[in-house]
UniProtKB/TrEMBL annotation:
This is Methylthioribulose-1-phosphate dehydratase. It comes from the Bacteria. It comes from Streptomyces roseoverticillatus. Binds 1 zinc ion per subunit. Pfam families: Aldolase_II (PF00596). Its cofactor is Zn(2+). Pathway: Amino-acid biosynthesis; L-methionine biosynthesis via salvage pathway; L-methionine from S-methyl-5-thio-alpha-D-ribose 1-phosphate: step 2/6.
């Protein structure tokens, strides 16, 4: 990606792409108000991410509302990044991802309340959208407790994440999903949300757990 336009001098291609992705997710009702945030890696040495700015309506976000941050989530160029930029950077360092999506969906919050120990998924064709077999063993979508401290939240995510499952639900908050690039992160987000919506329609188990 080349450095260029965007009011904060974030790489132009990344800024335009994040604006388009934000509009898409907002149209689904997954980034209501100013909620949610997106990022894409623009450099690895040193780590740099383009991140959506804080306090911006994601349905109206433009390329000028994208901030370049470092590996700690601190602004390098531009305005004020999302308060969760540090967690995006942590996810990238943990997973090697090229893009991270954080959306506030009703299904993710509701399912975290219903299944606080983790959300079990099995026997569904849509699992293929995460690179998992439809007829393989059950997989668990982790659920972690929320925190306003991104270091604490990052530690919880690192401890809970499941191999091969590119997502984590934060209780009372929303969904984090990552991928090699923004397109893969978007597709995975849509797949995970579909799985969560289906799980929400199913009656809870007799013990209210998994």
């Amino acid at each position: 990606m080349t450095t260029g336009a965007g009011g904060d001098d974030a790489p132009a291609e990344a800024a335009a792409l994040l604006a388009a992705e934000a509009a898409r997710f907002a149209s689904f009702g997954w980034m209501r108000g100013t909620s949610g945030n997106l990022s894409v890696v623009t450099g690895r040495e040193p780590l740099r991410l383009a991140v959506t700015a804080s306090g911006i309506d994601k349905g109206e976000l433009t390329a000028a509302d994208v901030v370049l941050v470092d590996g700690d989530g601190a602004a390098v160029r531009g305005g004020r990044p999302s308060a969760e930029a540090a967690l995006h950077a942590r996810v990238v360092r943990l997973t090697g991802a090229g893009a991270v999506v954080h959306v506030h969906t009703v299904a993710s919050v509701a399912m975290a309340r219903r299944r606080p120990a983790g959300i079990v998924l099995r026997g569904l064709e849509m699992l293929k959208g995460l690179g998992l077999p439809a007829d393989g063993p059950a997989v668990v979508l982790p659920v972690i407790a929320n925190s306003q401290d991104m270091r604490v939240l990052g530690d919880r995510l690192a401890a809970a994440r499941e191999p091969g499952v590119p997502a984590v639900v934060v209780a009372g908050h929303g969904l984090y999903v990552w991928g090699a690039d923004p397109r893969e992160a978007r597709h995975r987000t849509e797949v995970v949300e579909w799985l969560l919506e289906l799980a929400l329609l199913e009656p809870p188990g007799p013990d209210g757990g998994r």
